[in-house]
């Protein structure tokens, strides 16, 4: 199945804060310029941490929507599973940049598993994993740069 162009374009655009954060970690002068020009939360690991927590919460909403397509017991379990990423972001990203970055790495790896589960049960579109896998790989690489570089 082909990924709809709008979903692909918006998915790629959604990577911009992660990629920018990784670039500003790898290019400290650019990170300093960004921090001085538009603010420190838009540079380095901080942009990835703030934005990453928001995206995990957003993905909870997407999974909630998928749960509405399930029936009976599977729907109830789908609703329960769909709130985990938002709760994870809320409870696990309050520490420093290293701990929060590691927590987000775990959160994005975990949500990929939930994506697969909803896709496997037919609640997500057929093209869903074709979109989610590469986007998640980019997010994980960027977050790893923020944590380990």
Write up what this structure looks like.
- The chain has 149 residues and is mostly helical.
- Helix content is 81%, strand content 0%.
- Helix 2 packs antiparallel against helix 4 and helix 4 packs antiparallel against helix 5 (72-92).
- The mean pLDDT is 97.
Give the class from helix and strand content and strand pairing.
Answer: mainly alpha
Count of helix runs: 7
Give the C-alpha Rg. 16 Å
Mean pLDDT: 97
By DSSP, the count of extended strands is 0
- Relative helix content: over 70%
Unreliable spans are none
The N- to C-terminal Cα distance equals 37 Å
- What shape does the CA trace take? globular
- Strand content is under 5%
Largest sheet: none
Helix-strand pattern: HHHHHHH
Please outline what is shown here.
By secondary structure, this protein is mainly α. The protein has seven helices and no strands. Helices cover 81% and strands 0% of the residues.
List keywords for this structure.
single chain; 149 residues; mainly alpha
Map the helices and strands.
Blueprint: H1 5-13, H2 16-26, H3 28-37, H4 44-67, H5 72-92, H6 97-120, H7 128-148
């Amino acid at each position: 199945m082909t990924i709809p162009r709008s979903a692909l374009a918006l998915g790629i655009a959604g990577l911009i804060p992660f990629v920018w954060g990784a670039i500003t970690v790898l290019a400290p002068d650019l990170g300093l310029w960004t921090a001085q020009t538009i603010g420190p939360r838009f540079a380095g690991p901080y942009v990835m941490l703030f934005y990453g927590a928001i995206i995990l919460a957003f993905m909870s909403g997407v999974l909630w929507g998928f749960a509405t397509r399930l029936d009976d017991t599977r729907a109830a379990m789908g609703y329960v599973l769909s709130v985990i990423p938002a709760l994870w972001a809320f409870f696990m990203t309050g520490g420093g940049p290293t701990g929060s970055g590691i927590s987000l790495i775990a959160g994005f790896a975990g949500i990929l598993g939930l994506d697969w589960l909803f896709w496997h049960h037919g609640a997500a579109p057929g093209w869903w994993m074709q979109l989610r896998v590469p986007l998640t790989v980019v997010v994980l690489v960027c977050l790893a740069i923020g944590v380990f570089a």
